[in-house]
Design a protein that fits this description.
The complex is a heterodimer.
Chain A (H helix, E strand, L loop, with lengths): L2 H25 L5 H9 L12 H11 L13 H13 L13
Helix pairs in contact in A: 2-3
Chain B lengths: L1 H12 L10 H6 L4 H30 L8 H23 L1 H7 L10 H12 L4 H31 L9 H16 L6
Helix pairs in contact in B: 1-7, 3-4, 3-6, 3-7, 4-5, 4-6, 6-7, 7-8
Classes of the chains: A mainly alpha, B mainly alpha.
């Protein structure tokens, strides 16, 4: 086995990873953590049946007001829908306002 | 003079899209609006230029002295993937609109074969460092010109009276073919 090949790849990969890590510290974007929460609550089927690109797209639309009804997600059951609606109606965003969504 | 003919050769005569048929995925995917096409062109230009310089240096100063040239493919992909990741973070921070408009095609620059193609061609053609840098500008400029022209044609096609069976993607593909024929007219010039 050629040990220099392994080492060279390790060093190159490590250096690039380090550069990206440093860049990430300067370029990090504050995201509305409600989007992450709602994405976690959705079924995660990523079917696109709601008309948005994947579950994170739908969660984004719910939080930003593009979608008003959780039932646009056909895969979710009644329990999930109520949980998401209750969460969004009660949890304020970074600007202190809540979004109104219905089940 | 040699560099000028290299530039023109790689930009027009041996155009990366229309005569080598690299990078056809973004050509079809991001050419619905001329503005998005230009943004894609800029992103690809940055990635190819930096990638061609970095991969050239890595090949000649790291892989060659260690006699592990067979690792070129995986090393180049590492560099390209990191660059695309960087562009993605940069756009997400400074231009969320462009980030959204590009959608999945932004991370897909990683698999844009024009990027890897330039990096590998620079090595196999035996270019010097300056020539590799010129190739790193000429190829993406050719790509940007073609994708922009193609996007403007597609915009006109939206209102053109196209037979029903050719509407949409079929006529777009035929258009791309005719553009390739046009470029074939100057083949072998440089």
């Amino acid at each position: 086995m050629n040990i220099s090949a392994v080492l060279a790849l390790l060093v190159i990969g490590g250096a690039l990873g380090l550069l990206l890590g440093v860049a990430n510290m300067y370029l990090v974007v504050e995201e509305d953590n409600r989007v992450t929460e709602v994405t976690g609550m959705l079924p995660g089927a990523n079917c696109g049946g709601c008309g948005y690109p994947g579950c994170s797209g739908f969660a984004n639309a719910l939080v930003e007001g593009g979608a008003k009804k959780v039932s646009a997600c056909a895969v979710s059951n009644a329990e999930t829908r109520e949980k998401i609606a209750a969460y969004l109606n009660e949890t304020p965003g970074p600007d202190g306002t809540t979004v109104k969504v219905t089940v | 003079m040699e560099l000028v003919s290299l530039f023109i050769g790689l930009t027009f005569v041996n155009n990366v899209v229309l005569s080598k048929f690299y990078a056809v995925c973004p050509l079809l995917g991001v050419s619905k609006k001329p503005k998005n096409a230009l943004n894609m062109g800029h992103a690809v230009t940055f990635v190819i230029f930096v990638a061609s310089i970095v991969t050239y240096a890595l090949y000649h100063f790291v892989l060659k002295p260690l006699e592990i040239q067979y690792l070129d493919l995986i090393t180049f992909i590492l560099v390209i993937a990191s660059l695309v990741q960087f562009v993605e973070m940069f756009l997400k921070k400074f231009s969320p609109d462009i980030y959204k408009a590009m959608g999945v095609y932004l991370p897909l620059i990683t698999t844009n074969c024009a990027v890897l193609g330039v990096a590998l061609d620079n090595i196999s053609a035996g270019y010097s460092f300056i020539q590799a840098a010129v190739a790193g500008i000429a190829v993406p400029v050719g790509f940007t010109i073609v994708i922009y022209i193609y996007a403007t044609i597609r915009e006109r096609l939206e209102i053109a009276n196209v037979p029903a069976s050719f509407k949409g993607t079929p006529i777009a593909l035929i258009t791309a073919g005719i553009m390739a024929c046009a470029i074939a007219g100057i083949a072998g010039l440089v």
